[in-house]
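Reviewer 2 asked us to include a model.

Predict the structure of this chain.
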Amino acid sequence: MTQDYIISWKVAGIALGLLLTLATALVKPLGVSTQFVVTDAAVAHKVAPEFAESTPYLAKYGEKEDWGVGYGWMLVLGMLVGGGITAAIFRDKQPEQDKGSMPRMWRDQFGPSQLKRNAAAFTGGVLLLFGARLAGGCTSGHMISGISQLALGSFVFGIVTFAVAIMTAKMLYRAR
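Predicted model (structure tokens):
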């Protein structure tokens, strides 16, 4: 991979900081996992309002959400579309991959099954989302917005997330 395609971490950090400042000023701090709860609560308030109001977790979302169901899902959709566009643009520039199939490290450890790779990615995403909601926010909410606002809980979330990620990678990719 050539240096032509690498953005300096300093430039990326400044750009992310400016984007975060703009998002916070225009709407509110950035966060994605809350959107799933907002949508669940909005549906619960329409389908079973008594249940939604009697459940403390759902009662604080739904009809009173700040982003609205549409706006929050635009952020989620934007992440998917942006990730897809970026993957397509840089497909040939990925290190250690065979024409964009899957990382060699994964294939060597777990085999060539795309279904297995997709199932592992989906399961990891579900576990991360579940943990994020237990922590009161996701990696973007805590680690980008929360840490930039010097929230103690966000620092704890960031430290624990990285520690668990490192331990999981070491466990999954240990030599067999």
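The mean pLDDT is 79. Residues 123 and 129 are 10 Å apart (CA to CA). We have added this to the supplementary material.
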